[in-house]
Amino acid sequence: MLIKTLLISVLMVGSVCAQTGSPDKPITLVQGFGTGGNSDTIARIIAPGLSKELGQQVIVEAKTGAGGNIASAAVAKAPPDGNTLILLTGGHAVSAALYNQLSFNPIEDFDWISLVTQFPFAVSVSEESKFKSLVDVIKAAKAMPDSISYTSVGIGSTQHLSGELFASMAGIKMMHVPYKGGAGPLQDVLGGRVDVMFDSITVTKAQMESGKLRALGVTSLKPYKLLSGVAPVADAIPGYEVTSWTGVAAPKGTNPEVLKRIHAALLKVLSDPEVITKLENTGGLVTPSSSGAQMKQYVATQIAKWKKVLAMANIPKQ
Questions:
Q1: Between vectors from CA 266 to CA 91 and to CA 27, what angle results, nearest 5°?
Q2: Please, is 39 exposed, middle or buried when counting C-beta atoms within 10 Å of its C-beta (0-12, 13-18, 19+)?
Q3: Closest CA to 282 of 171, 62, 70, 117
Q4: Is the Cα dihedral 214, 155, 74, 100 positive or negative?
Q5: Is residue 35 part of a domain?
Q6: 1 in a domain, yes or no?
Q7: Is 145 within a domain?
């Protein structure tokens, strides 16, 4: 009799969770890049607030590789129970444009929740670099094609395409050095093993402020308020612009009530002044979506944009 009563109680609790739209066990927030990178940092900023709002521990888990596509594929195939989420980046849209075939549908295999931040990248070099400006980089690359190297967090990442677009629009050839994300690109640029870094302000800001990195440009079309004193790349290459983003999604088929609950929780987290300050310190502006549908439309627009960039820059699809 006691066992029967306990079983009924458990079922009732599960029913209440389903009705209130609450995930019923610890939540894994997957991100696709190495520790210390932009997406890892942002995931760890929002995770505590989500834990508080949802009443469940939110654990950040890295599934690195393939420019974030390993993480995306894993979450696309995860049970749609609200207990697995992903922090996607602008690289998700880049991959959708760059690759002829992925193991997941970059739009339809996800239930979209909300954007978190939008931001440009910084183009920087070591303080000991001979390059004092982007014009110096372009001149050197024209004199010796493929002699100037640049980093990215993986083939097909936004950083990769930022460098390819830069080279294409400048009429030069550069050598791409991909990493799996994390602090690897920064360490090798600081150590002089790679020449130029295209990466998020999250990764580069502290080193720029300390003088160990020299910012040569910001990839927004106009000066960026969170990176004062740094000229747009467009000053050297007219029309050049790259902006990226982060946002939260779930596997397709997640209970709509659960999605509503997570969306409401995330918006509350993103309205917290302390969280806003931390996110702005990564170089991103907090830009929550009013609905999952709004985020889905935004990502689809980004994919279309990158397809045009690939065509314009004559970058072959993979």
A1: 80
A2: buried
A3: 117
A4: positive
A5: yes
A6: no
A7: yes
Q: With contact defined as beta carbons under 8 Å apart, do 114 and 292 qualify?
A: yes
CA 63 to chain centre: 13
**CATH number of the structural domain spanning residue 131:** 3.40.190.10
The answer to the question of residue 250 being in a domain is yes
Report the C-alpha gap between 275 and 258 in whole angstroms. Answer: 23
pTM above 0.90, yes or no: no
User: Tens of pLDDT along the chain (318 residues)?
Assistant: 444 444 444 333 343 344 445 677 899 999 998 888 889 999 999 999 999 999 999 999 999 988 899 999 999 999 999 999 999 999 999 999 999 999 999 999 999 999 999 999 999 999 999 999 999 999 999 999 999 999 998 877 888 889 999 999 999 999 999 987 667 899 999 999 999 999 988 889 889 999 999 999 999 999 998 888 999 999 999 999 999 999 999 999 999 999 999 999 999 999 999 999 999 988 899 999 999 999 999 999 999 989 988 887 778 888
Start-to-end CA distance of the chain, whole Å, equals 62
Residue 261 belongs to domain spanning: 24-119+244-312
Say how many domains are in the chain: 2
